[in-house]
Amino acid sequence: MYGENAPPSWAQLPGARCRAVQHLTKLEGLQEFELLSGLDEGVFQALAIAAEVLEIGAGTPLYREGEPSGAVYFVREGRVKLFRSFSGRKPRDQILGVLGDGAVLGLDAALEGRPQSHGATALTDCSLYAVFRDDLVEIMCRFPEASLRLSKALASRIRELEDLVSDLVFHSAPQRVARMLLRLATEEGRVTKQGVVFEPSLSRQEMAEATGISREALSRALSRLAQEGILDLEGRTITILKPAELRART
Predict the structure, then answer these.
(1) pTM of the model
(2) Is the model more confident about 151 or about 69?
(3) 68/64 Cα distance (integer angstroms)
(4) What is the 3-state secondary structure (H, E, C) of the chain?
(5) Edge-first strand listing for the sheet containing 52-56
């Protein structure tokens, strides 16, 4: 079933479970993915037959850096962080991205048939469709249009990584913090009379990792923005009071 790949790490984790779901329910869920919109009915039928519905709790690793690429994951609900870990005198993580509903994870390693180049951990409770590598490759061979769509998703992810490299190289720490806040507000915020309010799925430590700075540097940047009246910080909740001014800091 796994071809040359071992089962993914979640297969042995108590925090993850595969839920028995009727074929029709899986079919309807897969048809909600914008990435797959407009594809031939046969694509959805094949994916629904191959897919297992996977549920993992917040904090559960989906896969780890260096492990075999056993499956590709279609995120139906929830948010997942992708990251690389660096060992040394001061071990740290670099967050490569936070992906949510409609995203596809693990595609690059699966298509290459190589170990995972990064780790993926659930930030929230997640519901995903897991399609084992051999099954997905067979579907892509049968349906060229599906193969093209997945290739476009992979290309989009590469562009996001290029943007991350650009951020780390060409933008200052305060600029990176401002850009991250705007991105999280767009993905997770709601507009109120006060401003854009959100409780980030990332912890403060993870926000620091996403911007490539220390936790202390992040705290200073957030405090400075709050002192200038651009942000309001209350516990984990962040309110962007002046979005235009924050955008000007990017």
Answers:
(1) 0.84
(2) 151
(3) 9
(4) CCCCCCCCHHHHCCCEEEECCCHHHHHHHHCCCHHHCCCCHHHHHHHHHHCEEEEECCCCEEECCCCCCCEEEEEEECCEEEEEEECCCCCEEEEEEEECCCCEECHHHHHHCCCCCCEEEECCCEEEEEEEHHHHHHHHHHCHHHHHHHHHHHHHHHHHHHHHHHHHHHCCHHHHHHHHHHHHHHHHCEECCCCEEECCCCCHHHHHHHHCCCHHHHHHHHHHHHHCCCEEEECCEEEECCHHHHHHCC
(5) 16-19, 52-56, 126-132, 71-77, 104-105
Whether the CB-CB separation of 176 and 168 falls below 8 Å is answered with: yes
Mean pLDDT of the 59-65 span: 93
Confidence category of residue 70, pLDDT binned at 50, 70, 90: confident
Radius of gyration of the chain (CA): 19
Q: Tell me what percent of the residues of the chain surpass a pLDDT of 90.
A: 79
Whether the per-residue pLDDT at 5 is higher than 50: the answer is no
